Amino acid sequence: MNRHFPNSYVKWSFNTAGLTVLKRKTLDGTHKLKTTFLLAVACVTIFHLAGCATPYQSNGFTGGFSETQLAPDVFRVYFCGNGYTSGERVQDFALLRASELSLQHSFKYFAILEQNNSVKSYSYSTPGEAYTTGSVDIHGNTATFSGYTTYEPGKTYTFYKPKTGLLIQCFAEKPDGIYTFDASFLQQSLKQKYKIK
């Protein structure tokens, strides 16, 4: 049963936190009628976290690097990006991690024995929504409803997450006959490119 408040009205408002709240405005001030939706909080949080390319970091919710030491001088390095990260950035960050690992284990050079680049696609769909608008005419004991319904179909969003894997071998001295990276030079170059301290 709907009640009529002569000195009030109901409206939807959008506050600074990005959350939808139903409020009732009265002569006495504004009163919250409904709390924020948990789904809105989750969506806002996810979009804020995922709205940027993956930074250079250890692997986490938005991606990052991971590694496995396979021998005293051999490492497998991975860097996974999120849907906003380019393939070039992922490859560069895998090389940066390879440089750091080499230097951390007292090696000056490393060679790539194997490289694997891949992209995984992910998609999600939003549900469709129906909105009904209408009016009621009351004449005595008779009420007539007149209205219409508008349907908005759901949408599907697809995004792509790039990943690079490197198998590297490290060297204390520059070997002959194999292409190697200078770990110190490459680390400095990539940190400068991406403004990493």
Summary keywords:
single chain; 197 residues; alpha+beta; 2 domains; five-stranded antiparallel sheet; three-stranded antiparallel sheet; 21% helix; 45% strand; disordered N terminus
What do you see in this structure?
By secondary structure, this protein is of the alpha+beta class. It has two domains: 50 residues, no CATH class; 140 residues, no CATH class. Helices cover 21% and strands 45% of the residues. The protein has three helices and ten strands, in the order βββαββαβββββα. Strands 4-5-9-6-10 form a five-stranded antiparallel beta sheet. Strands 1-2-3 form a three-stranded antiparallel beta sheet, with no helix packed on it. A two-stranded antiparallel sheet has the order 7-8. It is rod-shaped, with a radius of gyration of 28 Å. It starts with 8 loop residues before the first strand and ends with a helix. The N terminus is likely disordered.
Roughly how many Å apart are the termini?
63 Å
Going by helix content, strand content and strand pairing, the class is alpha+beta
Widest sheet, order of strands? 4-5-9-6-10
Beta-strand portion reads: over 45%
Please trace the helix and strand order, writing H or E for each element: EEEHEEHEEEEEH
Q: What is the overall pLDDT average?
A: 82
- Major sheet details: 5 strands, antiparallel
Overall tally of domains:
2
Radius of gyration: 28 Å
Large-scale geometry = rod-shaped
Low-confidence segments, given as residue ranges, are: 1-45
Number of strands: 10
Number of helices: 3
Helix content: 10-25%
